DNA sequence: CCCGTCCGTTGAATCGATTCAAGCACATGG
DNA sequence: CCATGTGCTTGAATCGATTCAACGGACGGG
C-alpha cells in the first residue's frame, strides 16, 4: 500500500534523490540509471504522492474554476476551453459550482485556499472582492471570468455585456419594434445589470421606444416560463412587441410559455425574442432563437492564460483586462 | 506568506500539538485555551495547509466524479446530488469530464490517484475496469455511477436501463406503433446497449413489430439532427412510426430535423418519439418530448453514500448494487 | 502526607517528495 | 604526479499538520 520513492530507490539500488531526479530532471541522470529506476517504478506500480510533492512545492499544479451554474451550458463550454489550455501547461482544472450562492462560493474558496491551488478562475456572485484579495495576499492569484474588473487589481476576461445588451435591443428596434421588455435577474449579478444597461441605452437612442424590466430570482427555464406567463397578457394589452432575455435558458422558458397553452402568441409576428449566450439549445428551440453569442471556449482558455501570467509574475505584473465583443446570431424568433 | 501551526502556537503561547487539537478535537482542550488559539488564528489569518494534512492522513477529504459529458444536464444533476451529500459529510467533489474518451478518462484517474482522493465516482467509458481495480489495490475505493457492476467487486448505482428501454418501446407499441427505430451509439457504452436490449425485448413480445438500429458516434444534438435527416425519408417510405432515442439530446436533435426543413413530418401523428433522461429541455422542446426519467440527483447522492461505506469498511465490506427503476413521462411527442 | 487518577498540554517523530551542498570517480591538462 | 574539472549520485534537511507517549499539576482517598 505504501509505495514511496524510498522503495523505488531500494529496488533500483539508488538513492531517493536520484529517483526524484529521474522523475523531474532525467537529463541530469545517466541513461541506464534512468532505465533501472523506470523499471523499478513499473514493477512496484509506484504513483507519486501529489500531496507530498505539493507540500514541498508550496503550490499545486491545479487550478480551480468556480462558476455560477454548472447546469448552464455557457459555463461548461468555458470550462472546456479552460481545461484544454490548462492541459497544455500540464495542469488540471477543478470545476466547482457556486449556484449563485455567496455561501457556496465562500465554501469553495475556503477549500481551494486550503488546497493551495495554483490559481482561481472565478465568476463571482457578488461585487465584493475582499475574499479574493485575501486569497491573493496569501499568494494565490485569481482571474475574474465573465466579469470586467476595471478598478481592481485582478486580471479579467469578459465580454462586453453592455454592448451585448445594446446589440440585442437594437436588433429588435431595427426590426421595427418599439415596446420592449427585459427579463432577467437578480440585478446584483453584474452580467444582468450590464445587459440591462446596454439595452436601456439602445432604447434611449430611439424616440418613442420604451423598455420595461421584469426581474427574476434566477436564470432558469422555470423562471423563464413564469416570466413568460406574466408577459403573455401584457403583449396583447399593452403592446409589448420585443423581449430581451438575460440568457438563453430564460428565453427558452419564455418562448415555451408564450407559444403553448390557450391563446398562444405568434413569434416573430406578434413578439420578437432575443436570448443571450447562444447555447446549442437556442438553435433547436421551437422557433429558433436569435441570441447574443459569446466566444465561450476562448473565454476559458484566455482566463487560464492570464492566470499563468499572474502566477509567473509573482503577482507583481500589471493586471490585464481582456474584453471580447459579443455578436448577434439572428434566427427565426425575430425575423420571418 | 508562511503562516503555519508553529506561528499560531507561538502567538497563542501553546504548543503545536495543542493548536492541532483545537482544530480537530476541541473537546479535549480547556475552553479558554481554545479561545486564545482561535484569536491567534484570526489575527494571523491562518489557513491550514490541506496538502500537509492530507500527507499525514494519507488520504484527502475530497471525492472525484468523472462523467461522460459535462455538457449533458443529466450528469450535472447527478453532480449536484453528489455534491450535496458530500457536503453533509464535510467533503468536496471535484468534477471531471472524460468526454467519452478513454484517454481523457485515464488521464483524470491518473491525476486523482496522485492526489490520493478519498474515492472515485465514475461513469466509465468502457467495460474494462482493470484501471479501477489498480486504484482500489492502492486503497482508493470506486463506485460506478449509472452502470451496473454485477460481477465486479465495485459498488454501483444505476438505473435499470434494460427496463427503461423496454418502457420506451412498449409505450410506442401501446400507442399502436409497430415499426420502430432505435437511435443511439456508440454501442460500447453500456447504457446505450442496455437500452437497446430492452427495446428489442419489448418489440419481440409483440408480433409483427420490428425494431431497426441507427448508430451514432456520440449522443449530441448534432448527431441527433444527422440521424433525423437520415430517418426522414424512411418514415414516409418504409413506414417507421416510432423512434426511441438513447438520450434526450439525440431526441431533441432528431425532432428538430423531422419538424423543420422541406417536407416536415407531423408529430405525434406520423411518428412518435421517446427520449431518455427527461432533461428540462425535453419538456420545452418544439413538441414536448415523452422521456424516460431517472432519479438524477438521487443517483449522485446514493453514489456518495456507497463510497463512504466502502471507505469506512476498509474495502472489506461486500459491494452493494443499488438499482433504481426508471419511469416514463408522457408528453405530446407520442400522444395527441 | 503520599499515591493514584485525571485533565491538559507538550514536542519529537512521521507522512513522501524535493532540494542542494557535498562527495566520489574518473578524465584532462600542465 | 598533482590540480582542476566534469558528470553522477548521495542523503540529510525541509515543507506543515497530526499523532501519541510522556509529563506536570491538581485533587481526592487512604
Give an overview of the whole structure:
- 2 copies of one chain form a homodimer.
- With 336 residues, chain A is an alpha/beta fold.
- Chain A is built from 13 helices and 12 strands.
- Chain A has helices at residues 5-12, 16-24, 31-44, 50-57, 73-88, 102-115, 130-137, 161-174, 190-204, 221-237, 248-259, 280-283, 296-312, and strands spanning 62-67, 92-97, 119-122, 142-145, 155-159, 179-184, 210-215, 242-245, 272-277, 290-293, 321-324, 327-329.
- In chain A, the strands form 2 sheets. Chain A has a 6-stranded parallel beta sheet, with helices on both faces.
- In chain A, strand 1, helix 5 and strand 2 (92-97) form a beta-alpha-beta unit.
- The first copy, chain A, is elongated.
- The model of chain A has no long low-confidence stretch (mean pLDDT 91).
- Chains A and B meet through helix 4, helix 5, strand 2, helix 6 and helix 11 of A and helix 4, helix 5, strand 2, helix 6 and helix 11 of B.
- The structure holds a DNA duplex (30 and 30 nucleotides).
Amino acid at each position: 500500500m505504501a509505495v514511496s520513492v524510498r522503495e523505488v530507490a531500494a529496488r533500483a539500488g539508488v538513492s531517493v534523490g536520484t529517483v526524484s531526479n529521474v522523475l523531474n530532471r532525467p537529463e541530469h541522470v545517466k541513461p541506464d540509471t534512468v532505465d533501472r529506476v523506470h523499471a523499478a517504478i513499473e514493477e512496484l506500480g509506484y504513483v507519486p504522492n501529489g500531496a507530498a510533492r505539493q507540500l514541498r512545492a508550496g503550490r499545486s499544479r491545479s487550478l480551480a474554476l468556480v462558476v455560477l451554474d454548472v447546469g448552464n451550458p455557457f459555463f461548461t463550454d468555458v470550462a472546456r476551453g479552460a481545461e484544454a489550455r490548462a492541459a497544455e501547461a500540464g495542469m488540471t482544472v477543478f470545476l466547482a459550482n457556486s449556484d449563485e450562492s455567496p455561501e457556496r462560493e465562500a465554501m469553495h474558496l475556503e477549500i481551494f485556499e486550503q488546497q493551495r491551488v495554483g490559481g482561481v478562475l472565478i465568476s463571482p456572485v457578488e461585487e465584493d472582492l475582499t475574499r479574493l484579495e485575501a486569497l491573493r495576499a496569501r499568494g494565490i492569484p485569481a482571474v475574474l471570468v465573465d466579469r470586467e474588473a476595471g478598478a481592481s487589481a485582478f486580471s479579467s476576461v469578459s465580454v462586453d455585456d453592455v454592448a451585448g445588451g445594446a446589440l440585442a435591443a437594437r436588433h429588435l428596434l431595427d426590426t421595427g419594434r418599439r415596446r420592449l421588455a427585459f427579463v432577467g435577474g437578480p440585478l446584483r449579478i453584474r452580467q444582468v445589470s450590464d445587459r440591462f444597461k446596454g439595452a436601456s441605452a439602445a432604447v434611449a437612442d430611439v424616440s418613442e421606444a420604451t423598455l420595461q424590466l421584469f426581474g427574476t430570482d434566477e436564470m432558469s427555464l422555470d423562471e423563464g416560463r413564469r416570466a413568460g406567463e406574466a408577459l403573455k397578457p401584457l403583449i396583447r394589452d399593452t403592446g409589448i412587441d420585443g423581449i430581451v432575455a438575460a440568457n438563453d435558458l430564460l428565453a427558452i422558458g419564455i418562448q415555451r410559455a408564450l407559444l403553448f397553452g390557450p391563446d398562444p402568441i405568434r413569434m416573430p409576428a406578434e413578439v420578437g425574442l432575443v436570448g443571450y449566450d447562444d447555447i446549442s439549445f437556442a438553435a433547436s428551440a421551437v422557433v429558433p432563437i436569435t441570441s447574443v453569442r459569446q466566444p465561450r471556449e476562448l473565454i476559458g482558455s484566455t482566463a487560464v492564460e492570464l492566470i499563468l501570467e499572474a502566477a509567473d509574475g509573482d503577482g507583481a505584473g500589471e493586471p490585464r483586462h481582456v474584453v471580447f465583443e459579443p455578436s448577434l446570431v439572428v434566427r427565426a424568433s425575430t425575423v420571418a
